[in-house]
Design goal:
It is an enzyme of class 2 (transferase). The termini are far apart. A hairpin with a 3-residue loop joins strand 7 and strand 8. It contains six helices and 15 strands. Helix content is 25%, strand content 31%. The strands form two sheets. Strands 5-4-3-2-6-7-8-15-10-13 form a ten-stranded mixed beta sheet, with helices on both faces. It has a five-stranded mixed beta sheet with strand order 1-9-14-11-12, with no helix packed on it. The protein has two domains: 143 residues, Rossmann fold, CATH 3.40.50.10240; 82 residues, Jelly Rolls.
Amino acid sequence: MNSRHWRVPFLQASRVLEGRNAHPLSGRWALIVLNQPFSRKLFDILWNACEWRVFADGGSNRVRDLLGNEWKSYLPDLITGDLDSIRSDVQQDYTSMDVRVVRDGSLDATDFMKCFDAIKELERRTPQEGDYSVIVLGGLSGRIDQTVHTMSYLYKLRRIRAHVFVATDDDVGWVLDEGEHYISLDRTFLGQTCGLLPVGIESTRLSMKGLQWNWTDHESSLDGDVSTSNWLAADEIWIKTTRPIWWTMSLKLPI
């Protein structure tokens, strides 16, 4: 059975406290900004963590409105999607600053998926530099169909991309594939609650250590037991699962 080691470097206390002065993380990190609400604090943390950024269609409106007069200091590398949500004034503003705005009219992919396609194309052009770790801003709040799409797409990505995290002002989460997982945490700006969610599978058998309520080879399914509203009890978490699950942790970012 495979084993994976995880860290969440963009939420380390030193980076959060540095705020807008933080430098990009080592390695290749990309940020996808979706069309959902988010705070300036979270946006700054994730923006500064990444070297390459793409706005998904209406995500451009969110950033433009959030930043006000500062928007010119936060220019993405790309805006893409079917462009049915971006306002004309926002598109004109970014175009005037030489930001690439690319319409992808495919009906077989969402704007979220089109952003990933752009990252894949960038990786194909620069294979010597390796793959990107990806942070998705938004995707786990708002409309339930969009939330399920996010969960479904990351489930599919788990075998071909090592690190894809989703962050909102409430949570950070990602998919744990079948096997053992060792998660090292800086809990300074994490909340207490966490969840192990058997979404998209019939059932899994779970074992874990480092939580307030741990299981040993316990069956978990949406039709049975689900470990929601569990508590983080240690900085080192161990999870063993026989099928892929979603792992989520609550955030408590400073105002």
